Amino acid sequence: MKIGDEGFVPLDVPVETRDIYRENYREITHGRGRLMLFAGDQKIEHLNDDFMGPGIHPDDADPEHLFRIAARGRIGVFATQLGLISRYGMDYGNVPYLVKLNSKTNLRKTADQDPFSPMLHTVGDVVRFRDRSGLSIRAVGYTVYPGSEFESEMLRQAARIVVSAHRYGLVTVLWMYPRGKSVRDETAPHLVAGAAGIAAALGSDFAKVNVPEKDGVQVPELLKEATNAGGRTKIICSGGPSVDEAQFLKGLYNQIHLGGTSGNATGRNIHQKSLQEAVRMCDAIAAISLDDTGPDEALKIIGK
Amino acid sequence: MKIGDEGFVPLDVPVETRDIYRENYREITHGRGRLMLFAGDQKIEHLNDDFMGPGIHPDDADPEHLFRIAARGRIGVFATQLGLISRYGMDYGNVPYLVKLNSKTNLRKTADQDPFSPMLHTVGDVVRFRDRSGLSIRAVGYTVYPGSEFESEMLRQAARIVVSAHRYGLVTVLWMYPRGKSVRDETAPHLVAGAAGIAAALGSDFAKVNVPEKDGVQVPELLKEATNAGGRTKIICSGGPSVDEAQFLKGLYNQIHLGGTSGNATGRNIHQKSLQEAVRMCDAIAAISLDDTGPDEALKIIGK
Amino acid sequence: MKIGDEGFVPLDVPVETRDIYRENYREITHGRGRLMLFAGDQKIEHLNDDFMGPGIHPDDADPEHLFRIAARGRIGVFATQLGLISRYGMDYGNVPYLVKLNSKTNLRKTADQDPFSPMLHTVGDVVRFRDRSGLSIRAVGYTVYPGSEFESEMLRQAARIVVSAHRYGLVTVLWMYPRGKSVRDETAPHLVAGAAGIAAALGSDFAKVNVPEKDGVQVPELLKEATNAGGRTKIICSGGPSVDEAQFLKGLYNQIHLGGTSGNATGRNIHQKSLQEAVRMCDAIAAISLDDTGPDEALKIIGK
Amino acid sequence: MKIGDEGFVPLDVPVETRDIYRENYREITHGRGRLMLFAGDQKIEHLNDDFMGPGIHPDDADPEHLFRIAARGRIGVFATQLGLISRYGMDYGNVPYLVKLNSKTNLRKTADQDPFSPMLHTVGDVVRFRDRSGLSIRAVGYTVYPGSEFESEMLRQAARIVVSAHRYGLVTVLWMYPRGKSVRDETAPHLVAGAAGIAAALGSDFAKVNVPEKDGVQVPELLKEATNAGGRTKIICSGGPSVDEAQFLKGLYNQIHLGGTSGNATGRNIHQKSLQEAVRMCDAIAAISLDDTGPDEALKIIGK
Amino acid sequence: MKIGDEGFVPLDVPVETRDIYRENYREITHGRGRLMLFAGDQKIEHLNDDFMGPGIHPDDADPEHLFRIAARGRIGVFATQLGLISRYGMDYGNVPYLVKLNSKTNLRKTADQDPFSPMLHTVGDVVRFRDRSGLSIRAVGYTVYPGSEFESEMLRQAARIVVSAHRYGLVTVLWMYPRGKSVRDETAPHLVAGAAGIAAALGSDFAKVNVPEKDGVQVPELLKEATNAGGRTKIICSGGPSVDEAQFLKGLYNQIHLGGTSGNATGRNIHQKSLQEAVRMCDAIAAISLDDTGPDEALKIIGK
Q1: B92 is catalytic
Q2: pLDDT at position C295 over 70
Q3: Are E70 and E40 in contact (CB under 8 A)?
Q4: Do chain E and C touch: 3 or more Cβ pairs under 8 angstroms?
Q5: pLDDT 10s per residue in chain B (304 long)?
Q6: CB distance from E144 to chain D under 8 Å?
Q7: Among partner residues D89, D108, D125, which is closest to E147 by beta-carbon distance?
Q8: 3-state helix, strand, coil in chain D (%, to 5)
């Protein structure tokens, strides 16, 4: 492991909140320096596409499904918007939350307009919400689209968010997705590594990046350049490309063990299942991410 | 009913204003968890088109007509701009108000420019106005146009408005209208559901959406996807498509009982009538929205 | 008269400044609820076009001409920019002033760019200036161009200006000029009424609108729709279309008595004359506006 | 003289800084109500074009040349950027300074983009700098480009700068240059007068305008319209069009005596000479501007 | 030497932080008035291009490589983003840091969009970080692209950064790179001098400029115009054009001794080597920059 996880605190965390930061970091990484992030911010990002349609279990039509999974599955953190947490959190007080600070819809395509996704809430809003609600708000997240015409404003917001979050002891995750009319190949290994490096320069604790592809196929080994480039900023991906659980889990295992990643961020591959299956999927993903369980053994957890 | 209305308070409402929130919510929903919203913000949105013309009663030419209706009809809340309230409220102190925070004219068409409708006033302005005037300002409203080129700024404003309003105990209603050159079918059921989901992610108490259409005909049953997607954010629509009262009331009844909506937002179908007829129309709509009265019986209220 | 002028105070005027508001309103309306506004903001709006050229008296070349007229003519309020007041006000302490908060030049045409005219000064600047200078600053004004590409920002500024001005007891006048590439007919009666309705929704005390035209000819009777739509926001126009005094005064009389307006806003038809003639013209206009003098009798005041 | 210079204080100067304003005004006008402004802000405006090239004395390559001239020549005020003053002011403590608040380079041409030159520093920055440094910072300056696509923001900044500067007792100079794709003839007399009128409406103490031209030839007499339009805002120009000293001085004399201007703003015609010649040129220009010396006698001062 | 380095303090440094400024300046210039700046901000500017690829030592793949060099090589200051410092600084407490305040990626080309690189952090953020971390943060840096469509905002930010940094005693370095569709030849000597002059007008302590070229070849002597134009703002460049160490060092020597520069800013030519070689390269560059060592002797330091 590249950094001494237990004691590591970035220098922009002031003395008075270092204990909070350490606790937040330890809790969401289960003391293992790895992150199992359950992503549930798609109601803005993808509208209702991820929640209703062929192959999606009817349970997923109700937003509460996400909270039910988060409460029962083995996760590090559940990432969603503040508004949703404000309406379900009172019934899901044991869930560790990451507030996703920005979101955009998929209605405008990149061909029409480069992506821009400014903050919906400030870190100050999140801290006040944490203190008012008493919930375990442990982290914040933000998506940057390097290469977009609006890159500059998103880089600026990301930089400020990291400093603000650390000031209050919150852990940070940046989603780093190069995108825009100037970006030709979003999954080129060298570009993915560049995205990881930006997150490092911005001082984030974690960065989610795309899995690099070669000839249209994900190659976990190619993540090595990105995990090197990230340095003390840990890299996570979204698991294998397939909805086939075996392939998904194997991909994730290879990302960690061949690519050097430190966990995963998974959404649809979990919540589009029934509650019971979703919880098992969480547990299988967590076993790989946190316990270094092999993919075959993990497959048994989901009963396959 | 999906949520325990009487006790439900979102977690972004701080302890010290929870009682205010509960009272506001109870008052505007008549203790039944349903909203009868009388919409009177069209003087900016549609200029004078809704107030003068063929089929519009001369009473409607005077803005005070709206207040006269609001004072005598059975409504949950009267939605209009702060400026208008500031000039008539002294004579209509018993009306429950929702301040509509943004408005745009219809002069520029979507083909010329994607819609953008930023805040005219802040929630702080509204709270100060409430406290200065002593009026029953119980809610705020805001329109979002997902898919517009200016979506990001409107999402940001909506998110901040919800948090600010809840901070002061005000109830929130978001008008969610996907619109812009990238939006092809504004009444597609799946898109309407997506709009409802955005409002949920933004943490609003209510969201007004379009009634989904199939082959150009409104189909209340198709609202089910949206009311599911909204989760604990309740969905309202604007009643049936027709100016024919029978059809209108039947449409509204089906929206609630087949589509799962929690009330209505109605403007022109009320205020374009004479005062007496408008008040009866209010009462009929309220009977369906709040008392589960059937459309035929409701029709009797308006004397038809 | 639609509202009880003597006592009327909008609800966004706080208790502590209601007396100031009442005094300001009474002073500029001469206790008659009508406004005689002498407009002198053209040095930015029209550069030197209104002050030097064929048919313009040489007196008008010097900005002080405006102040000399304002000091001797019978007016309700003299509208001009803060900067000009700051350099002449010490010699014209008895003039009642309206600070025009925004202005743009006429160099860029609507065909090149939709009009945008943001605030030069804030209401706070005006209040500080009032208190420092001891002048009778009684009102503020702002121009909105509905239909412009920049409409949203101007609506926002106008809304905030009304609330701020009322907070300090100042009376507000909004110039409502639909304009932009999307606006085809700026003097259509229905559009003029729409503009009046916007001012009402923004809560302004007065709104200046264009006189509606039919086949290119001003028709004062057609103002009736606008004065209805304005409701408790009073409507003023700029007098008849002609530089012929008789026609001008007759037009103004008809605006008030057939169209229902509550005064006038007149600039060039006054200040392009010699001082003596300009003062007489003021007095004639004031007689019609404030005393319901007929146009023929008013014509005698100017000695014609 | 149009205004009583000795006592004149604009009304936006608060009581507590009136003495500072009076002193600043008296010092930079040498008690004669006329301004000899030495302009040295070209390092941003024209990059190194004015400081190195054919016909430019090698002394001018070093920025300190400007300060050496300002310290020895007879000037009213030396106008340059705050940054330059911060690095040389300690050795030139006796120079009266005007801080030029905005600047743009000449790299983008008007054909590519209308000019925009926002503030580099605020008046607050200048006041703090004055108080920290103890230098004689007596005025601030700002360039407005009426007719530019970005006119509105520059008008706004200019208006705020005047009010802020006066608040602290600083004198203001606005450079008024109509420019942009919509402006056809920047030196048309009527347009120059319009520019002067804008400065008056903005409340500036001085405005620098272009010398009006007829058939491409400067005609000082044509400034009369502008100096009238400026009213109590005094007008200055940049001296004759030529690098020939005799023509330059004669042009300046005529501007004042035929055009009614109140001084000059001169840069290149001074600093492109050797130190000794530059100082003499200053003295000659000052003699005309401040003492009403004739051009022939002034020519003797520079030894020609 | 043009200015008395030991005692020189710009006038925008307030009395209370002059000692801090003097110490910072002395430390990063090794008391010799020359700057050896090790540039490590390329993880955003060039993504991973500078850290992985042909001819780049594998050591460079890890961001910590930069810190290892900075800790062992003889440098004046290590320039990188705040985020990276926050994650490695605890292990590299003896390094003198310059926080680079803005950065952009190279994904969008100038042909697509003129460069814009706004601040990621404010000077206030840096000062708080300095005080929290106890690190030797001694300077801040910012890149300006004169000639870009977005020039005005960058000039404004640069001006404010200089004043803010000096307020807290921090030294400033501006990277001055004319760029944009309006800029034809970025290395023309006259334009480079113009860029230096802008930095002087902005009041920066140091400015990095391009080495002027003639027929595509760098000519250190041509820097003389720029170092003159900079005046009391010292100029640095990035060393010779080649990766050949002998040429690089000779170029650097000539820049200083023929072009009048005051140091260097070097990145890739250092960090793309192995740790040992990178440290030696640092030492060789420092010998030339600080000790006036000749290029042949400096070459011995790197063992060639």
Answers
A1: no
A2: yes
A3: yes
A4: no
A5: 344 456 899 999 999 999 999 999 999 999 999 999 999 999 999 999 999 999 999 999 999 999 999 999 999 999 999 999 999 999 999 999 999 999 999 999 999 999 999 899 999 999 999 999 999 999 999 999 999 999 999 999 999 999 999 999 999 999 999 999 999 999 999 999 999 999 999 999 999 999 999 999 999 999 999 999 999 999 999 876 777 999 999 999 999 999 999 999 999 999 999 999 999 999 999 999 999 999 999 999 998 7
A6: no
A7: D108
A8: 45, 15, 40
State residue C167's pLDDT score.
97
pLDDT of residue A1: 38
Beta carbons of D195 and C51 less than 8 Å apart: no
Asked whether the beta carbons of residue D87 and residue E229 sit closer than 8 angstroms, the reply is no
Whether E204 sits inside 8 A of D82 (CB atoms) is: no
Contacts with C103 from chain D: Cβ below 8 Å: 155, 201
How distant is the Cα of B186 from the closest Cα of chain A, in angstroms? 11
Q: What's the pTM?
A: 0.96
The pLDDT of residue E192: 98
Q: Is C184 on the interface with D (CB under 8 A)?
A: no
> How buried is E20 (Cβ within 10 angstroms: 0-12 exposed, 13-18 middle, 19+ buried)?
middle
Q: Where are the domains of chain E?
A: 15-301
Task: Tell how strand E263-266 and strand A206-208 pair up.
Answer: unpaired
- E56 interfacial to chain A (CB closer than 8 Å): no
CA dihedral A87, B220, B237, B247 (to 10 degrees): -150
E234 is catalytic: no
Closest CA to B298 of B239, B258, B241: B239
| Helix H or strand E segment including A270 | helix A268-271
pLDDT tens digits, A43-69: 999 999 999 999 999 999 999 999 999
Helix or strand or coil: residue B132?
helix
- Chain E closest-CA separation from residue A12 CA (Å): 6
Q: Please give the CATH topology (third level) of the domain spanning C15-301.
A: TIM Barrel (3.20.20)
- CB-CB contact of B182 with B147 (8 Å): yes
Q: Is B282 on the interface with C (CB under 8 A)?
A: no
Integer Cα distance of B65 and B49 in angstroms: 15
Pairing of strands E217-218, E234-236: unpaired
Cβ separation D197–C43 shorter than 8 A: yes
- Shortest distance between the Cα of E168 and any Cα of chain A, in A, equals 19
